[in-house]
Amino acid sequence: MTAKDDQILSYLTDMDGVLVHEDQLIPGADEFLAELRENEIPFLVLTNNSIRTPRDLQARLRHTGLDIPEESIWTSALATATFLDDQRPNGTAYVVGESGLTTALHEIGYVLTDSDPDYVVLGETRTYSFEAITTAIRLVDRGAKFIATNPDATGPSRDGVLPATGSVAALITRATGKDPYYVGKPNPLMMRSALRRIGAHSQSTVMIGDRMDTDVIAGLEAGMRTVLVTSGISTKSSVEKYPFRPTLVVDSVADLLNRTRTPFVEL
Questions:
Q1: Is-catalytic flag, 16?
Q2: CA–CA separation, 219 vs 217, rounded Å?
Q3: pTM attached to this predicted model
Q4: Is 14 part of the annotated catalytic residue set?
């Protein structure tokens, strides 16, 4: 690569495990984002979690010490709404999820209904209802297209793992024989919609994440360079379990300070 080819013009970064961990700031995350702002480098914070709206996430992050504007937060709920707006504008959907997802769909003009909807859209919630899942199964069985915000099987909590979207999607699939279309990571569709959001190009953008099976592969398949941080789920040894590799492995985003334009040494 030439120096020009190597230059970084924008960043996409995962949130949990990269900037925060269990509502605690990961050391160096605030300085890293401050450096991006100082150098006028566009960035977008990504999350597969569809529970909260960007405004809710902004408040959560501010509580940890990170001041990130709403427009710099991109969720799987927003990516799902963007996808549905492109596929079937002003459609209808039955939603199993929370305000992050319902708000995103309302904002694109979707009507939420359990009466012959175009789609069943499954997202994250802490209170999955047997009644709501049963309704979703029946609607999918009758012909509604099945969409899920992300394939994550579990989510973290202070008491241990919780069943997440992927686990409930598997239940609906087992009952109906129909697989969902997953919009969130590792689908590179979410990455491309994020790039469009900030007017960035994949060749000059870096994806930072803490998971090989979602963040790194999604960035790689979208044509970006990738950084794996070991401040979240993955470890340096876990890289060897996969047939693909990130461009760079570091302990945390603090290791990228003072080299946000050209931070890469190929593995």
A1: yes
A2: 5
A3: 0.91
A4: yes
